[in-house]
Amino acid sequence: WENDPVITLPEGLTSGSMKGTIVISKGKYSEKLSVDLLIPSLEDGLRLRYEFEDGKAADVSGNGRDGASYGTLKEADGINGKAMYFSGGYVHMPEDVIQGLERFSVSVWINPLSDFQYARVWDIGSGENNFVNLWLRSDTERKYSCNIRLNESTTQRNQAEKATFKTGTWRNLVVTYDEADNSRITIYEDGEMLASIQTGKKL
């Protein structure tokens, strides 16, 4: 097919399996394919989840990866439940968050109130020369950037193809990593793909 197919789940189905038929057609040609789709739960493979209730970074995934809070942090209203207001502070995640993973996704809801260049949404690593992180914007064009530096002298910046960053509105940012696809990094905002780059960097 020329375009990726879109499969809509039945209302109320969030996990389990679904059987059906896909019809592929172009011009006078068509073909039917029987499919049996496995729909994983959002909890499958979850390493950590912070909901920031009571102003704390407690891991509600059940894996015990609580975050340690530093600096000025306040509880605030989120898009669904509570959120954390960062004003000069940060939450330190355990260092094994992505350890041993060949594929992973990091998903966050953000509502930036100020326009800070190079502000980090998240940063995973072990020092100034070994990390993967996500910047709100890397330049005056307001493009998100996922950056990788692995014990080397330079940082590889994987930047969104277009500028979408705005202040004062909730956005869902997702970064995916796939080692099998030449360590591809993909950046999404509200479900829209903004960048997909083969980095060649094995995390």
Describe it for me?
This protein has 203 residues and is mainly beta. 0% of the residues lie in helices and 44% in strands. It is built from no helices and 14 strands. It has strands at 16-26, 29-39, 68-70, 73-77, 82-86, 90-92, 103-110, 120-125, 130-135, 145-150, 156-159, 171-178, 184-189, 192-198. The strands form 5 sheets. A 4-stranded antiparallel β-sheet has the order 7-12-13-14, with no helix packed on it. A 4-stranded antiparallel β-sheet has the order 8-9-10-11, with no helix packed on it. A hairpin with a 5-residue loop joins strand 12 (171-178) and strand 13. The chain is globular and about 65 Å long. The two termini are 33 Å apart.
Structure keywords:
4-stranded antiparallel beta sheet, mainly beta, globular
The major pleated sheet works out as: 4 strands, antiparallel
Task: Give a count of the beta strands, DSSP E runs of length 2 or more.
Answer: 14
How much of the sequence is in beta strands? 35-45%
Helix and strand content put the structural class at: mainly beta
What is the helix content?
under 10%
Mean pLDDT across all residues, rounded?
84
SSE string? EEEEEEEEEEEEEE
Query: What's the gyration radius in Å?
Result: 19 Å
First-residue to last-residue Cα separation: 33 Å
Strand order of the largest sheet: 7-12-13-14
As residue ranges, the low-confidence spans are none
**How large is the count of helical segments?**
0
CA-based shape: globular
